[in-house]
Amino acid sequence: MKKKTINAFTLVEMLIVIVIIGVLIYALLPRMQAAQGRARDVSRKTALSQIQSAIVTYQGDHGEWPLQKEIGSNWTGIKAIETQLIQAWMTEVPHDPLNGTQFSWVRDDGTNVTDFGYVVAKRNSVTSGWFALMAKTEVAWGSNWVICDNGDFITGGTDLRDVHPCSNVVESGSCSNPNAENNSGCYGSLWEMRYIVLY
To answer: Are the C-beta atoms of residues 158 and 116 closer than 8 Å to each other?
Structure first.
């Protein structure tokens, strides 16, 4: 009588397969995460465009930007002007895709903000002549730092004439802020990247 042979993987073969799968996951995971970050950055840009339109609509209806008198020269979060955006016929105000759980920025007065930023600033020496919106980005591709002639980041006191788009955004170990370096926006870490909309 012949013995029945059972075709099965040995323990060593199974371990080899598990190791190979682990190596593949380890190699592909960063690329997948970067792709997700890029997708969220696209979502952020779209959201800022929608918010920009709502702010312009509000200004047309009320003759002033949302919170124009209240916020002064400090950045504030979009949540602070949510009521005004709804008044501008925005049914739902978009917020950061990660809900501010990971990405945030520090306002000039030291306040931590975990959403899109908004500030009213000068234009051609006219106070409250324009506004800027800001999103925290995840990849350099989604960032577009701007250069301010006075060396500062955009505040309510920054005039639009002194703001210029960067030709590119680069990582620099010595860069601790978004100021200009040969017309390049620079960041010391991914934490410092931003996407700015000027109006």
So the answer is: no
Cα–Cα distance, 197 to 48 (Å, whole number): 7
* 78: nearest Cα among 132, 124, 38, 27: 132
3-class secondary structure, 89: coil
**Which residues fall within 8 angstroms of residue 144, CB to CB, at 6 or more apart?**
165, 166, 169, 185, 194, 195, 196
pTM: 0.75
Q: 14-27, pLDDT tens digit by residue?
A: 888 888 887 777 77
H/E segment holding residue 13: helix 11-62
Q: Bin 128: left if φ > 0, else alpha if -120 < ψ < 50, else beta.
A: left
Phi-psi region of 130 (alpha: psi -120 to 50; beta: other; left: phi over 0): beta
72 pLDDT higher than 70: no
